[in-house]
Amino acid sequence: MAIIPLSSLVPDQNDFLTLPVEEVAGVLLLHLNSYPDGGNVVAQFGKINQHGFFDDSLHRFPYPDPIRRVMLEAWNWLESEGLLARETDTVGASFFISRRGRGVKLREDFDAFRKGRLLPKHQIHPLIASEVYPLFLSGKYDTAIFEAFREVEVAVRKAGGFPATTVGVNLMRDAFRPVNNNQSGSLTDKQLPAPEQEAMLSLFAGAIGLFKNPQSHRHVPTHPEDAAEVIIFASQLLRIVDRLKP
């Protein structure tokens, strides 16, 4: 495979000075991943030589110093994210592309990696991780949000012992109905004061009404950052259900 030139990834070199560091890092990683192992001063014996990339007399970095510094920032970003790892040699200029980094061969691969950082799979509820996470990575944010809150609805219905015909906001009101005359919803936390029981009901009913129902009826455009935050909220609701279910 031929080396992918930086100039083909960012044709106007001045754009390097305005791009966010993570965008430059993605370009740099695509470029480094395209080097053959051997026959050049950058990639040899499974290692990437930083000195060979930036400073070797046979391979002068093709851009002026301000862009060189931006590229160094991007290199450090890749290292901090675990996409590049430093070798244990005495020179200190040898790196290798990590297993995760090796999976970044296309711009789409790097986009998926960045989205995954917004929604850490190991920190979200298992139901969200298995059913919603793939949708999020593929950029289907409205569908991912809908599925996340559908999981909340299904979990509440199952934990509370409700029939399939009880749905949406009405389900949440029945499940979290505050204590009144020794009667309450099947998932009401009776150890909470009455105002907090009301707040719990409002939390679940509002979440389903605001985040699930609109997704059911129309396309709701979202940014990945917004979608990740909403999905994490759904994950927290699922953990509350886990705690309260009989």
What is the CA–CA distance across the termini?
59 Å
Secondary-structure element sequence? HHEEHHEEHHHHHHHH
Number of helices: 12
User: How much helix is in the residues?
Assistant: 55-70%
Strand segment tally? 4
Uncertain parts = none
Compute the average pLDDT: 86
Radius of gyration: 25 Å
Total separate domains: 2
Quickly give the structural class. mainly alpha
Q: DSSP strand (E) fraction?
A: under 5%
Largest sheet: number of strands, sense, barrel closure: 4 strands, antiparallel
Shape: elongated
Query: Strand order of the main beta sheet, please?
Result: 1-2-4-3
Structure description:
The chain is mostly helical and 246 residues long. It has 2 domains: 108 residues, Arc Repressor Mutant, subunit A, CATH 1.10.10; 126 residues, no CATH class. It has 12 helices and 4 strands, in the order H-H-E-E-H-H-E-E-H-H-H-H-H-H-H-H. Strands 1-2-4-3 form a 4-stranded antiparallel beta sheet. Strand 1 and strand 2 form a beta hairpin. Helix 2 packs across helix 6, helix 9 runs parallel beside helix 10 and helix 9 packs parallel to helix 12. The longest helix is centred in the last third of the chain and has 24 residues. The chain is elongated.
Which labels suit this protein?
single chain, 246 residues, mainly alpha, Arc Repressor Mutant, subunit A, 2 domains, four-stranded antiparallel beta sheet, 12 helices, 4 strands, elongated
